[in-house]
Structure formats: C-alpha cells, structure tokens
Amino acid sequence: MTTGGEAGAFSAATGSAAPGSSTVGQSTQLTVVNNSATAVWEDLDSDPNTSAVINIPVWITYTANPGATPPVPSLSSTTVNGSFAPISASSVATSGPIPRFVDTSSAAVIFTIVPCVTNLLFPFVTSQSGFDTGLAISNTSSDPFKTPQQTGDCTLNWFGSAFTGATAVTPNVLPGTSFVALTSNVLSSVTGGFTGYMIAVCRFQYAHGFAFVSDLGARNLAMGYLALIIPDPPRTANPFPFSSTGSGEQLGY
Predict the structure, then answer these.
(1) Four-point Cα dihedral 140, 230, 72, 59, nearest 10
(2) Which end of the chain is less enclosed by CB atoms within 10 A, N or C?
(3) 207-233 pLDDT, tens per residue?
C-alpha cells in the first residue's frame, strides 16, 4: 500500500468489522490497481498543544490454492509505505497547495508468499566401484483425504566426490506418480562415478523418497532406505523449533 501524487478530496470509506474484531466500521477493503492500493486518513480532532501517535493497522486476506501456479516471485511480497499528505511532486516545492510534504518513507515488508516445498535428504548415494543407486521420488498429494493436488519439479543437489554444489532438475512430478532414475544416468558426465549425499528440493508438498543401492544387477549386495525429510527453516518457534543452541536438524520420513 503506497501513497503518492497531489492529494485531493477523498470520500469517507465505510467498512466492516476488522479481522478478529467485533467492532463494525473499523476496516475497509482497498481497490488494487497495478498491484498498488492507496488510503488517505484525515485527522478531524487534533490538539495543537499535545503530541499524538496514530496506529494504522493493515490486514491481508487471501484464498489459498496450493494446486495452482505459485505467484510470480517479484509479486510475492507485500510492502507498506506511509507519509504525510499531500505529497509534493518533487523534492523542491515551487508551486501547488500548501502545506505539502516529501515522502521519505521506506517500504516495509509485511507479508510474503513463499512456495511450499519438501526437502528430501538421501544420506548416501553412489555410482562408483561397480555400484549404482536407484532414486525414486513420489508425489503423494493424490490421496483418499481430499488433499489439494500439486505438481512441481525437484532440484537434486549433489554433495561429494569433488562434485559438491552441482544440481540437476527433474521433470514435473504429477500427483500420484514417481520420478525414477539411476544416479549414473543423472550424473553421466561425472568421470569415475559419484559417492556422497543428495538433497532434493521438491516444489510440492507430500514428496517422499526411496533409494536402492546395489552392485550392477543386484547380484551380490543390495540395500534400500527411505529419504529423510528436512523441515523448512521455521519462521516462528513452531512447528519445528531447533535445539536450544540454535542449530540441529529435525528429520522424519
């Protein structure tokens, strides 16, 4: 929400109860034009002999739709500016109504939309010494519980064998399907194979992973494991608090 331009007369807005309040007339919905909305308040009961503080709350409401395309990153954050009005069109006031002000405020981010992801840790992956690792990532957002279905790809981040930091991106994994691949095929350009671990960042919720390590053809040695789920870094103390030292992982399947 921003203010700008030479302010003229504004009609009083009527509103409804603010979120969490039973008092009617305390809030009103603003009209958004080109991703911006403007509101102007006029103080009709002031005392020039005393100082006053005005707190202007802002609420944002939206309808979640995790199955749809996520917002464009540049539009995913909402900012608020506030200043006195009317605002001068330039830093040097040469004409126009008096008084006028210069907007020296800084935008404050009050709301941010971030994508829902699942972080999967495959703690041991190898394609060396006659072994290979089969990888499977399932999109389980298709279920009998009426979960909103989601579609997205997974970025595979590899760490180990002088290949740390390299990435590969899977095709989109549809609800109810799995991405399946051999490490040797995904990392076919790595001379001598790969040994290390891999973290898959999947751009959908309810991703689960499985790995199967074996000698070629699974003739003599083989083992499988479920990928561990690394929770998103918590934005508040819940739902995934770190340890009292401020570090550590909270892993699950």
Answers:
(1) 100
(2) C
(3) 999 999 988 766 778 889 999 999 876
Q: Of 114, 145, 162, which residue constitutes the final position of a domain?
A: 114
Three-state DSSP at 27 gives strand
Q: Is 175 helix (H, G, I), strand (E, B) or coil?
A: coil
Question: Which range marks the domain in which residue 110 is found?
Answer: 1-114
Residue 28 has pLDDT above 50, yes or no: yes
Helix (H) or strand (E) run with residue 214 in it: strand 207-215
Q: CA 43, CA 81: separation in Å to the nearest integer?
A: 18
Both 9 and 72 in one domain: the answer is: yes
pLDDT in tens, 29-40: 788 888 888 888
DSSP lists the bridge partners of residue 207 as 139
Q: Are both 99 and 124 inside the same structural domain?
A: no
